[in-house]
Amino acid sequence: GSGKPYEEPADSAIVIMLDAVIAQTTRYKGTYNQVSRVELYYRPSSTATISDISTHTYSDNLTKYSNGQWGGMLEDAVNTTDSFDFYVKASNSSNVMIFSGSAKNRILSNGINNLSIKLSSI
């Protein structure tokens, strides 16, 4: 090595961890246990309504972890001093969206970002 204990890679991966806090209810289209696909969308922070998914860039179909969180990568390198809006959709095995959630004005850092987004029933 170069003598430095840690050298940051040129393209730092940004990992989003979604802490999906979802009520276990059957009054809606499904329950947390029925979620089989979680998709992440993002955009630079905007005044546009965050629920308008057409204004966002598709990022990733997230991976489910055993701790109940979902994580993935942003497809594009992003500037970590900029602020971003996020939209998340959670679907069942029939690809019917059963939950969605969003977060506004989040600044990301290099490495793992714990982005807690509460998902609501559709």
Helix content: under 10%
Low-confidence sequence ranges: 6-12
Mean pLDDT: 78
Largest sheet: 5 strands, antiparallel
Global shape: globular
Count of helix runs: 0
**Beta-strand content estimate:** 35-45%
Distance between the terminal alpha carbons, to the nearest Å? 52 Å
Question: What is the β-strand count?
Answer: 9
Element-by-element helix/strand order:
EEEEEEEEE
Which structural class fits the helix and strand makeup? mainly beta
How do the strands of the widest beta sheet line up side by side?
3-2-6-7-9
Integer-rounded radius of gyration: 16 Å
Describe the structure.
The structure is a single chain. The protein has no helices and nine strands. The chain has a five-stranded antiparallel β-sheet, with no helix packed on it. It has a four-stranded mixed β-sheet with strand order 4-5-1-8, with no helix packed on it. The chain has 122 residues and is mainly β. The termini are far apart. The protein is globular, with a radius of gyration of 16 Å.
